[in-house]
């Protein structure tokens, strides 16, 4: 019996494998979230220096593989035993083993999210192309949400490949038919593009970034145009509710921007898993 047949006949083994894989991927997503913005900033600085004829900035080799992960406070290299997803964080008490500086709880949170979503996807879709696509979609969305929280930026390096991947997966009608996916990609971009320019013309200010357009286009490419109203409504509701809560309870300034990407991410994941029953129930109410 092949490994694929074992997974097909033993669902709990598939789910367990997905959970463990999610932990490993979550650890890698932490690297992406931390390093990709730094890599892009170095690239932009080098390009600006080249255009202006200025001396190139010092070349620090940073990518998703090197340098080795280390404590940002004391520079202690993180050993393999200290890099086991979630387990190492708990064993170390959330502190660096060398200088005892606190480690952000974001690391186990990202690992846990990637793992829980992977387990749920394995249970929901089984061993299928839809499961593979849902994993790609969910993990990319996690990275985008946390990068946007840190930098107010949704990198093209993730949003554009995610968009094209959605179209390719739907060539086989994995989540929707290809016509709906193409219309969803175009409509997702154009809807927020129109909102952006309407707000800018009315107020003279920019209400969101172009990365939000591309993220909604990617969601449309994966889930089809019929899910876009649900995604827009959910993300707007979440943004308004959390924004009001931050102003009231956390004294967040009204003029301080809040990234919209995480709300699109949450709404996109809800639409992936529960979009059809929610939409069906909503239409029945109407």
Key traits:
286 residues, mainly alpha, 10 helices
Provide structural commentary.
By secondary structure, the protein is mostly helical. Helix content is 69%, strand content 0%. The chain is built from 10 helices and no strands. Helix 2 packs across helix 4 (106-125), helix 5 (129-151) packs across helix 10 (261-285) and helix 8 packs across helix 10 (261-285). The chain is globular.
Regarding quaternary structure, how should these chains be classified?
single chain
Number of helices: 10
Give the biggest beta sheet.
Answer: none
- Radius of gyration, Cα only, in angstroms? 21 Å
* Low-confidence runs: none
The H-and-E topology, N to C, reads as HHHHHHHHHH
**Averaged pLDDT:** 90
Shape assignment: globular
Helix fraction bin: 55-70%
Backbone structural class: mainly alpha
Query: For the terminal residues, how far apart are their CA atoms?
Result: 51 Å
Beta-strand portion reads: under 5%
What's the layout of helices and strands?
Blueprint: H1 3-9, H2 11-52, H3 87-91, H4 106-125, H5 129-151, H6 156-169, H7 178-203, H8 210-223, H9 228-249, H10 261-285
Helix pairs in contact: 1-2, 2-4, 2-5, 4-5, 5-6, 5-10, 6-7, 6-8, 7-8, 8-10, 9-10
Summed up, what is this model?
This protein has about 290 residues and is mainly α.
